[in-house]
Amino acid sequence: MKNILEYLENTAPRFPDRPALCDEEGCLSFGEFLALSRTGGSELLRRGLYHEPVAVFMKKCPKTICAFFSVIYAGCYYIPVDIGMPQQRIQMILEKLNARVIIYDESSEELLHELGYGEQMLSVDELFAGSIDESLLGYVRRRALDIDPIYIVFTSGSTGMPKGVTACHRSVIDYAEAICPVIGADETSVFAMQVPLFVDACLKELLSVIRCGSEVWLMPQNLFMSPLAALDYLNRHHVNTLCWVASALTMISGFGAFEDVKPAGIRTVCFSSEVFPVKQLRLWQEACPGARFINFYGPTECTGISFYYEVDHAFDDTETVPVGHPFDNTDYILLTDDDTEAAPGEQGEICIRGTCVTLGYYADPERTSAAFTQNPLNKLLPEIIYRTGDLGFVNERGELVFVSRKDNQIKNMGHRIELGEIEACADRLDGLESSCCLWDSARHKLILFYMGSAEEKAVRSYMRGELPRHMLPNKILRLDTIPLLANAKIDRIALKKKYEESIKNGRNS
Asked: Phi then psi for 217, rounded to 5 degrees?
């Protein structure tokens, strides 16, 4: 196999009338999914597009996914954009792409006109209004290679300029072949997609749909403002498989929702993106007896997920759930600061190699060469590795354990500190549901944000008994909710702003 479209073409004839892509407005069957995608691909080819970026600026709905696949059918690569992104970020992405066509719907039409992109706009209705051109589609497929790009996902850059991670068919195919069996996805799997479509995390569900015949419900983001409503959504749609970021799972369990509603029929829970506190994991295990729990780890630059660990024993609150072992055709090395391999049990930067490593950052050779580098342990042949910026070590069971981001490792009072270790300590306290620790480098202060019923004084007293002095937060702030990004990861920039506001207001813990 060299093209991910083969998955859809193999699956759709098996289940032509079965629901594939669903939201509250309705479902598209596999047959409709395939037909719309081929129709849209034909329309793009008739307009002369080939081997170029096509932006898809639409709301989260089934037809948006069909638009993605239309772009792939045209031999192009799609870039998902969403009205939920900050306007400045949208503008930077569109300027970077300089795409000849932007597929839009009613949610983005007005903004695109305001930004001056009227000439590039193609409505989703026009995209799907024509007919399928077998000749054009066949010509593109005959010329296709598995190293051709398939999508660009923009991630945040430290300079403020988003980085466009570009993945190819081979990376995504190997990803599908690895992750779908781990999830246990098949034609009976029903997913609830928690993340927006502009992040690569949505691939876990989409690949399960096209490869295995699974069904996915596109979950509205606002449901996470009400844990009970989110659980009701899962039960109404008979969802049995979750692939959510850890903070989204914590939003459900941390607010005591399981006391009123239990998710019925859940058989697999996959978590990723952030460390899932053992206390919250245990609540989910109690609410979903018999379910499998799988920890996923991997960066967008390596096609989303590269490692997995299936929880196979009870963890103590002081332990960290490992990220486990790499997928097939993926490997890693732990490098020290001097680019030598870390000794057994020693921390090192997690560097990934294999077909999962993407093509780099779109139109950004400087930042690509800084992160996608030659393997320093291979002096004989070219071999690109991706430097994740994450620290990890191998435990006594041979499992990789994530420690923290390199940039979350700070030095205070002469001691090197992992901010994640402070968060893990706080999360063990009864009455504290979730936390985030920041470092104010200008003032040399540690700041701990948390949500839960515990009083700030109780949190400080507890941590004094658990941590050495150099790791104690200088400031502790309780919030009703910890702000999240659109993908449900913790919004650290928003927390920094709250911290600055607390200083202005003279608030101290």
From this structure: -105, 130
- Helices 62-73 and 30-46 meet at what angle, rounded to 10? 50
Q: Can you tell me the distance from the alpha carbon of 286 to that of 278, in angstroms, rounded to the nearest whole number?
A: 12
How many CA atoms within 13 Å lie on the side-chain side of 461?
A: 6
Q: What is the tens place of the pLDDT at every residue in 482-504?
A: 888 776 678 888 899 989 888 87
The rounded distance, in Å, linking the Cα atoms of 406 and 277 is 20
Least confident of 20-29, 226-235, 313-322: 313-322
CB–CB of 266/244 below 8 Å?
A: no
Q: Name residue 154's amino acid.
A: F
C-alpha dist (Å) from residue 257 to 166, 249, 272, 286? 39, 11, 21, 13
Contact 246, 253 (CB under 8 A): no
How many other β-carbons are positioned within 10 Å of the β-carbon of residue 337? 8
CA distance 509 to 507: 7
Is 215 within 8 Å of 191 (Cβ atoms)?
yes
Closest CA to 250 of 493, 14, 433: 433
Structure tokens at 200: 């690569």
- Which tokens belong to 497? 């702003």
Q: Which token pair is 431?
A: 């009455």
Q: Is 379:329 a contact under the CB 8 Å cutoff?
A: no
> CB of 400 within 8 A of CB of 392?
yes
The CA distance from 24 to 223, in Å, is 12
Cα–Cα dist 20/213, whole Å: 7
pLDDT digits (tens, 9 = 90+) for 67-108: 999 999 999 999 999 988 888 889 999 999 999 999 999 999
Nearest by Cα to 73 from 97, 98, 43: 43
Radius of gyration of the chain (CA): 23
User: Do the Cβ atoms of 421 and 471 come closer than 8 Å?
Assistant: yes
Q: Is 360 helix (H, G, I), strand (E, B) or coil?
A: strand
User: Does residue 64 come out as left (phi exceeding 0), alpha (psi in the -120 to 50 range) or beta?
Assistant: alpha
The angle, 0 to 180 degrees and rounded to 10, between the axes of the packed helices 246-253 and 227-236 is 100
Of the candidates 240, 244, 236, 234, the one whose C-alpha atom is nearest the C-alpha of residue 186 is 240
Q: pTM for the complete prediction?
A: 0.89
CA angle 450–454–455, rounded 5-degree value: 95
Nearest to 389 by CA among 349, 338, 416: 349
